[in-house]
Amino acid sequence: MDPVDTVRAQLSHHPPPTHTRRPRGPTLPAHRLPELPGRVAVPGQSRGTPGAPGTLGHFNTAPDADAEATLLTCLHSLRWAVRVARHRPYPDLPSLLAACDEAAYDLTPAELSAALAAETLPPLPADAYSAAHTALDAAHAAYEAKFGHAFVICLDGVPPAEGLDRVLEGIRSRLANDPEEERVVAAEELRRLAGERLTKALTGPADPADLAIGHHTAGNGW
Fold first, then answer.
1. Which end of the chain has fewer CB atoms at under 10 Å, N or C?
2. 112: Cα within 13 Å, side-chain hemisphere
3. Separation CA 84–CA 187 (nearest Å)
4. Which CATH number describes the domain made up of 55-203?
5. pLDDT of amino acid 33
């Protein structure tokens, strides 16, 4: 059986997400996200009123495979993508994001590890001074050596000029965590990134100034 069909069959025995957000614990300050390539418009199907490409209406009416492909650019978990896609249509974006959160909370440890493994640290801008490259490379190498995956942080709403300082501060702060503590923090940041990425995908092109540290391997750099 195809892996996607296997996941769909498994999920047929699970109730749909409640579409309500769970309370979030404390996380690091958010920044903005990078544009993620591969957010192709998903063609319509007969699930409801089609919308323009890159909108919630279009996402709701897309074939399952195309909706799942869009979701996988936001968080690399096939079961998560299949679960969210199969409960379409969603009445509004908050309902979709709540379902994404609910499904992400149910990732198994192995699925979370795979999703984190798909994240990479984007490079600094070409005009960044060399000391910045050295500092970021050293801090991130220490993080990966301790935790075994890329540093993941959602950076939403902070000016690009402040991004590097926030990232370095975050890495150094989180290096003090033990592996289980950091896994909880990284999972929350990954959920936040997924929500921000999907919002960008369904509401229009991302601003070139938008940033994320810890982005999907399909994504661009800084």
1. N
2. 20
3. 18
4. 1.10.3330.10
5. 31
